[in-house]
Design goal:
Blueprint (H helix, E strand, L loop, with lengths): L3 E9 L6 H6 L9 E10 L5 H7 L4 E5 L5 H14 L4 E5 L10 H9 L5 E12 L3 H18 L10 E4 L1 H6 L9 H10 L4 E9 L10 H17 L18 H5 L2
Length: 254
């Protein structure tokens, strides 16, 4: 099997203070059969996000003409990863809340042929600094997703996810404002194997989230109803498309 090209993409809106640090923490050489590139999807930033990403060594930068929303930025990121020839896409928020150094852990189930869609779970790992209202909102929407797909999910709103080639190509995100719930519902309904990996999470110390709690709550319900009302067909999955030789020592290296 040829090397697997992993493209790590970062949706970014006014993240000049943190995007470079996240890029610097992305492991580039953790397995001899894996090549890593970085893509930044600039969602209409009005600060120095693009310059900071370039200075930090991003391989690809795509700038949307205006702020379209996180769902639209993730949709664009998956589309661009596919067009750039990625075998695997990894999404991680650009706010430095999620542990970029744990990307090898996130990819392990996929590289072992155990899953097609992996989420980094804060609630299976470590959470520091999350406010009560956000924690309760996460619990509620995660529980709702679990009920709708009949599968236990621990952290349905994670901003750190990995996608097989097939998952990347078949993931439908029907909501521009947010992607977290609809993409999971969509992929699981299509038959993709989902797995969660514990991660170490800490609430951002720089910048400001552009997801507003009230708007989030009001926007997510209609999106979930719309997604669950849409007919979807099952995809024939290639379970070993990205399997590589096990090399835990090198996977742990950065």
């Amino acid at each position: 099997m040829m090397n697997q090209l992993v493209i790590v993409f970062l949706p970014a809106h006014n993240e000049e203070e943190t995007v470079g640090e996240v890029i610097s923490k992305i492991p580039r050489h953790f397995h001899p059969e894996v090549t890593v590139e970085v893509l930044v999807v600039d969602d209409g930033s009005q600060d120095g996000t693009v310059a900071a990403a370039a200075a930090a060594g991003a391989d690809h930068i795509i700038s949307l003409p205006a702020n379209k929303g996180l769902g639209a930025a993730v949709r664009e990121g998956l589309f661009r990863c596919d067009k750039l020839g990625a075998d695997i896409a990894v999404m991680i928020d650009a706010d430095n809340e999620y542990p970029a150094w744990q990307i090898p852990d996130l990819l392990e189930p996929l590289l072992n042929g155990e899953a097609d869609y992996i989420m980094g779970s804060r609630f299976l790992g470590t959470i520091r600094g999350m406010r009560l209202n956000r924690r309760l909102g996460n619990y509620f929407f995660t529980f709702l997703q679990s009920v709708l797909v009949g599968k236990r999910i621990a952290d349905g709103q994670s901003g750190m996810r990995a996608f097989s080639k097939q998952a990347m190509q078949h993931a439908d995100i029907i909501h521009d404002y947010n992607y977290a719930q609809v993409i999971t519902l969509n992929l699981i309904r299509k038959g993709f194997r989902m797995k969660e990996v514990p991660i170490d999470y800490q609430v951002r110390s720089k910048g400001q989230s552009f997801i507003k709690f009230k708007a989030y709550m009001l926007a997510v319900f209609p999106a979930i109803v719309k997604e669950m009302s849409r007919p979807v067909g099952k995809i024939t999955i290639n379970p070993t498309a990205h399997a590589v030789k096990s090399d835990r020592g090198k996977q742990k290296a950065s």
